[in-house]
Write a structure and sequence with these properties.
The chain is of the alpha/beta class and about 270 residues long. The protein has helices spanning about 45-50, 70-80, 105-115, 135-150, 180-195, 210-220, 230-235, 235-250, 255-260, and strands at about 5-10, 25, 30-35, 60-65, 85-90, 125-130, 155, 160-165, 170-175, 200-205, 225. Strand 5 (about 85-90), helix 3 and strand 6 form a beta-alpha-beta unit. The longest helix has 16 residues, at about 135-150. The mean pLDDT is about 95.
Length: about 270
């Protein structure tokens, strides 16, 4: 289809049913709100599925999470030998227990134990929440600094935006799609500027065209991810984004996306 890599999950140590249905809705502007609550079959079952498909030429990153440090680390131990990288999801808005890892002391302890369990050369990414106040901004940038100090290989910015959703069993959901695109750009640019480009950024939030992806690269992204656009547009969207990026590169004086990354911030 044209993907450079896949990010699958999120997976937890133990199976989860997630929040009661209905728990996902289409929104105006080709956006989506979900209140999933991390439904998945658990690390043991997922590891078994992954082991059947090893050897295929693909890059697979698995998103994992947990409700305690012990769960998080054990899930990592079981999954990481079977994938090309792990993304630590500390930012889902639909599972209250996960948010404890947005507290820097708790996150620091988690990263320390993940570092001890890491296989050399196996990347670890961290998916951060969006922020809308100065206090939230300072907290997320503290988390980013901890990532750098603990040799995390990339930041995925951003997770969905929490909104009120009366149709959801928990009363809230996570907004994704074009309605959060500008927030994603703002935060990706902020992180790139704050870190001086010291850590790669995977831009995630509302990308649905080559121009969207181009703008994300300009503010510092090293890669881009899509989900909501894939639902609305189908698999052809990947090739279209790739073609549009190639056309834009050909018309510009920039030789590659690597050169483009962060160019608007320099």
């Amino acid at each position: 289809m044209g993907f450079g890599y896949l990010t699958l999950g999120t997976v937890t140590l133990n199976p989860r049913d997630g929040n009661p249905k209905p728990r996902i809705w289409r929104y105006p502007g080709k956006s989506i709100v979900n209140s999933m609550g991390l439904p998945n079959q658990g690390a043991k079952r997922i590891a078994g599925n992954l082991s059947k498909h090893r050897g295929n030429e693909r890059l697979v990153v698995l998103s994992i999470s947990g409700l305690s440090i012990e769960e998080f680390v054990e899930c990592y131990r079981q999954i990481q030998p079977l994938v090309d990288g792990i993304e630590l999801n500390i930012s889902t808005p639909n599972t209250v227990g996960v948010r404890i890892f947005q507290q820097p002391p708790v996150f620091k302890k988690l990263l320390g134990l993940i570092t001890e369990a890491r296989t050399p050369g196996k990347p670890v990414w961290v998916k951060i929440p969006p922020y809308f106040t100065e206090k939230e901004r300072e907290n997320v940038l503290d988390l980013v600094e901890l990532c750098i100090r603990n040799s995390v290989d990339g930041i995925t910015a951003i997770n969905t935006k929490m909104v009120q959703e009366p149709r959801a069993s928990i009363g809230t959901g996570g907004l994704s799609g074009p309605l959060i695109f500008e927030d994603m750009l703002r935060i990706a640019a902020d992180i790139y500027k704050h870190t001086g480009g010291r850590i790669p950024i995977n831009a995630c939030g509302g990308i649905s065209s080559g121009l969207n992806a181009w703008r994300a690269f300009e503010v510092g992204a090293s890669s881009v991810q899509i989900y909501t656009a894939f639902i609305y547009e189908g698999p052809g969207i990947v090739a279209r984004i790739n073609r549009e990026l190639l056309e834009m590169l050909e018309k510009s004086k920039i030789g590659s996306l690597q050169e483009l990354a962060g160019s608007a911030m320099r």
